[in-house]
Design a protein that fits this description.
Elements: E1 9-22, E2 25-31, E3 43-46, H1 55-65, E4 72-75, E5 85-89, H2 104-109, E6 116-123, H3 132-135, E7 138-144, H4 148-161, E8 166-173, H5 182-191, E9 196-202, E10 215-217, H6 222-228, E11 236-241, H7 246-255, H8 263-273, E12 281-285
């Protein structure tokens, strides 16, 4: 029998610090009197009804949809040995989306230190297995945008608790100013030169002058994976980033077409093309 998973619990947090990561992304460092334990890579949930400022918008959206507004999930940016923290990127509405970006603007722009709200945590299977060092010696992280958050937690926890593991961290963003945890990733790579390699790829920035030598142009390609990962038959890849949404699939089905692959689908396809088996792939849809 698999071990019983702890049931997520509701507890109150108070914001103690707001860290500006990028122009539209912040990390909320929080404290809680009583909090269940969690594993790096897991997430907590926040109900938009917890914020009185959103009461009218929640009621309006529920009226339009004819159903209860969903809670929002946010991965832990902190590792379990650190102060509790989540990182939030402001979501923008895309025409046709059924998921309205209701909560993220409040968390990004209107949660100063002292703000209190309830959360539910923790849950999620996107974690390293306890026997990871017996399964592999190399974890490959492939992330895009705010999909970096759970992998950032996993990386910090692993560098502390899994000394036999090395990591290749491939982080894709539009421009250098969009890179979340930029300075911390650089510091960790400097502190653990034999265990961590960080590579950034930028999809919408042509001029790379003045940027660190590990910055590349373009998306994650098969050629880049072959260059960076020699042990493709034994490494395990953790992939987190934008994926095809349910409403994108619905629209494509109605039009009789296939939905356009996004970062998650394209990256998983490239990994399998260079030799990764499904058993060595972990995924998390994000953003």
């Amino acid at each position: 029998m698999p071990p019983e998973r702890p049931k997520p619990q509701t507890f109150e947090v108070v914001v103690t610090e707001v860290v500006q990561e990028t122009p539209d992304t912040v990390t909320l460092v929080m404290a809680a009197e009583k909090m269940p334990s969690y594993r790096a890579g897991q997430f907590l949930s926040i109900d938009p009804r917890a914020f009185r400022i959103l009461a009218g918008q929640v009621a309006y959206l529920e009226h339009l949809k004819g159903r209860k507004e969903l809670v929002r999930a946010y991965s832990m940016a902190s590792a379990p040995h650190e102060p509790l923290a989540i990182t939030i990127k402001e979501e923008l509405y895309r025409p046709g989306d059924l998921h309205f970006p209701l909560l993220s603007p409040v968390l990004v722009y209107a949660c100063p230190p002292g703000t209190r709200f309830p959360v539910v945590g923790f849950t999620g299977p996107y974690t390293l297995p306890p026997d990871v060092e017996q399964r592999t010696g190399h974890i490959v992280h492939l992330v895009a945008g705010s999909g970096v958050v759970p992998n950032f937690s996993i990386l910090k926890d692993s560098l502390r608790n899994h000394p036999k593991l090395r990591h290749t961290f491939i982080d894709t963003n539009k421009t250098w100013s969009d890179v979340i945890f930029q300075s911390t990733l650089a510091r960790l790579a400097s502190e653990f030169p034999d265990r961590l390699r960080v590579v950034h790829t930028l999809t919408r920035q042509e001029d790379l002058s003045g940027l660190p030598p590990g910055v590349r142009k373009g998306r994650v390609s098969r050629e880049l994976l072959e260059e960076l990962i020699a042990d493709r038959d034994t490494a395990i890849a953790y992939v987190c980033g934008p994926a095809i949404a349910n409403w994108d699939r619905k629209k494509a089905l109605e039009a009789g077409t296939q939905p356009t692959p996004r970062f998650l689908e394209s990256t998983l396809g490239n990994l399998q093309a260079v030799g990764f088996t499904p058993a060595r792939l972990r995924r998390e849809a994000y953003g």
